[in-house]
Inverse folding.
DNA sequence: ACAGTATCGATACCTTTTTATCGATACCAT
DNA sequence: ATGGTATCGATAAAAAGGTATCGATACTGT
């Protein structure tokens, strides 16, 4: 009924890989390398060359036989597609351990993200200065703020409630680190960033591998 | 050639959803609710009921018509499948902003994860005490440690080098937060936890939505 | 200039995952 | 007891994404 995969006309998985290509391409750019083949990029990222080419096809970037793709073109097209070439303002709610780490993260410059304000409700958090941003009380959050994106790092129990307040304040995109599913009116874009999911995959793979090892042991080697 | 999706016989996406079902199910358990239908769980998690049922099918858990599934059974089966029902030791390397946040995270108890040791190389980090764990110099890392999983939160430039050291020290699973692709010998399980990927999806969706809005404006409303 | 070759890109194919359909089952009310 | 119905689960269809094939193209070296 919903098939909510593609973003515009680009597969979700392709968009995800864009974020992986970018640091590798930026490294090359820094090293003065101007062209790259799908095969060599694939090797660096443990992908298949054909997949890399197909991804680039979605960008409308076309390579040249025998040489490859222009590094600058690729970076430009990806950054443009993600709007990472210009700065977007964001706010952050929940300045605990994780929120503080994100406020201190230097890498968001590469992603066109600027955290302009931070909010909390704990008396010992409000007023704190974190990497140049002063923590305000959540009640100070006003719809006039022109940030459209919010980073949600409050405790899981508060997640739903705070998210609703964000929507009322005019936020249209929420980057949700709380691991709870937010139930919000349709037009809001929610991106769940649940690290438990990554841990689950890792755990499952390790568990599966351990099981295989035991099975292999019970059978004598061929 | 590779199609690396399934973990054992379970689709990767299903394993990922297990991590999302769990907190919701634990909430129910806490509230004394013992049965849940696929439809109600789907609604909470913004999924389709049939997908929930199919996921549970992989666990071998079978529901009862007209009532639903036993909450306890589901939790037990998922935790068992992920080995989250017993504690695994892990080490963490890179005690900067993010590493510190993870060391302070209380939620890992639910995931059967115990961070037993932390390492860094910066003189002002070594010796620090973070949530009961004393930061050691990376050179102190010894193969005798029985942790099999490592959390990698060093700076991106050191990622590859440190990962190789981890492998030499007997680590078989790496939870990689650095955003860099690690090139390691085959049997090592690497789980990339690149938040830039989540941000890319959010950015792309917001950008696509903005584009749609502009297009809708240029056309007069029907 | 020309042969040889690395690399791209269009097309077709295959695998995996999601969704629809529908009969079977167990609970509930009468 | 019986009929009504919510819910499950098997099967099949649809959709999405990944991979193989192969002709076309542009660079390299002679
Ligand atoms: N720390 C981690 O490494 C980590 C890892 C995975 C997930 N998470 C998730 O990230 C979120 C934050 O984790 P944390 O470790 O930083 O927790 P934390 O307890 O350190 O921080 C939570 C912060 O949110 C604030 N808060 C709570 N309710 C609020 C409300 N209604 N309005 C405004 N602020 C409110 C608290 O005052 C606190 O400062 C949690 O949802 C957690 O599950 C954290
Ligand atoms: N802070 C965030 O919110 C955030 C967000 C996204 C990604 N990341 C990624 O997580 C990683 C850590 O980020 P951070 O913000 O904590 O950075 P940070 O600079 O605060 O911490 C990095 C830590 O790694 C240590 N380190 C560096 N090289 C090392 C080595 N060879 N051996 C041992 N320790 C070493 C440093 O001493 C430092 O303590 C980075 O790869 C970053 O890209 C962080």
């Amino acid at each position: 009924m919903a098939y909510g995969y593609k973003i515009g006309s680009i597969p979700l998985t392709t968009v995800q890989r864009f974020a992986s290509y970018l640091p590798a391409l930026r490294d090359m750019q820094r090293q003065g390398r101007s062209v790259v083949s799908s095969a060599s990029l694939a090797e660096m990222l443990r992908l298949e060359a054909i997949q890399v080419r197909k991804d680039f096809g979605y960008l409308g970037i076309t390579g040249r036989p025998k040489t490859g793709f222009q590094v600058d073109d690729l970076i430009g097209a990806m950054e443009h597609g993600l709007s990472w070439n210009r700065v977007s303002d964001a706010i952050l709610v929940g300045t605990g351990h994780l929120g503080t780490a994100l406020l201190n993260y230097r890498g968001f410059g590469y992603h066109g993200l600027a955290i302009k304000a931070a909010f909390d409700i704990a008396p010992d958090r409000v007023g704190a200065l974190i990497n140049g941003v002063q923590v305000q009380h959540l009640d100070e959050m006003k719809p006039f703020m022109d940030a459209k994106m919010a980073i949600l790092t409050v405790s899981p129990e508060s997640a739903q409630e705070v998210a609703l307040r964000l929507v009322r304040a005019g936020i249209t995109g929420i980057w949700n680190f709380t691991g709870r599913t937010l139930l919000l009116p349709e037009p809001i874009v929610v991106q769940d960033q649940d690290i438990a999911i990554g841990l689950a995959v890792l755990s499952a793979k390790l568990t599966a591998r351990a099981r295989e090892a035991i099975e292999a042991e019970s059978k004598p080697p061929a």
